[in-house]
Amino acid sequence: SPYWPGLIEAYRDRLPVSDSTPVVTLQEGATPLVPAPELSRRTGCDVYLKVEGANPTGSFKDRGMTMAITKAVEEGAQAVICASTGNTSASAAAYAARAGLVCAVLVPQGKIALGKLAQALVHGAKLLQVDGNFDDCLALASKLSIDYPVSLVNSVNQYRIEGQKTASFEIVDVLGDAPDIHCLPVGNAGNITAYWQGYREYAADGTATRTPRMWGFQAAGAAPIVSGQVVEQPQTIATAIRIGNPASWTKALAARDESGGRIDAVTDRAILAAYRLLARSEAVFVEPASAASVAGLLQVAEAGELEPGQRVVCTVTGNGLKDPDWAISGAPAPVTVPVDAGVAAAQLGL
Ligand code: F0G
Question: Which of 13, 37, 98, 110 is buried deepest, with most CB atoms within 10 A?
Answer without folding.
Answer: 98
